[in-house]
Amino acid sequence: MRWLVVAGALALGCPPPARYTENRPGLSCDRATRVAYRTLETLGYTITDVVPASPERAGTIAGTRKEPDGTSKTGKVVISCDAKGAVLRPVEDSVLPDYDFSRAFGYSFKELVKRPDVEEPRAQRGLEVLVHVLTAQEGILDLGGVPATGGAVVVRVTVRNNTDRAVSLDPSTLDLVPDGGSATGPLPAADARAALAPAGAGDKVRTELLTGPRRIGPHATSGGYLVYPPGVYREARIGIEDVETGEAEGFVAPVQ
Predict the structure, then answer these.
(1) Which H, E and C letters describe 5-21, residue by residue?
(2) Is residue 148 part of a domain?
(3) Does pTM top 0.85 for this prediction?
(4) pLDDT tens, position by position, 68-101
């Protein structure tokens, strides 16, 4: 019987003492999941599993992190929630844990939950262009499922125009550069729609596809999705045009 108990503990992980549990009255299921996701990322974990929390079922966020000695460490958080709030329980990956993960999660979560989910730009002037590859886990978190099929890469583009002038983004000119390869543009609209999942998350991306020039007014934010061929991209090359003068400004940004 003792061996069965130990085997069960190894399979399920070790729940922390009550003092490491985050009890958050008033925190919604969705926000608890999102902040837990950001917390693991902040702690250096690569997210490997996302199950959004709901009143009907517990959610989980799990990830792995490479340690300095070359070993791999697993971090996992179980999220329970209802109309009253959320409870987050870190799960240690050792039968005899030191609770370092639970403590680190608690400290970081307490800070991140105070901040908005979308950080404001650090610079309040000029143009800010963000190009972000949507991972499968982020698709589950943000869209309720994996949006693309066949390895197609879904990219979320956000332009924050902190100037007094209107600008225009032509998505056909937004090229991505892979490691050791040539720049490639987004798939044409018809091909992009075909590369997306037939329903659910795919439909959500379809409704926000950038299919033509997009005008962004002064002090406004706009964006949407583009779909690219399979690849690992490191750099984006973007052209933004001043609507009044027609002059274009080129940007090079890292792909996040």
Answers:
(1) HHHHHHHHCECCCHHHC
(2) yes
(3) no
(4) 888 899 999 999 999 999 999 999 887 777 888 8
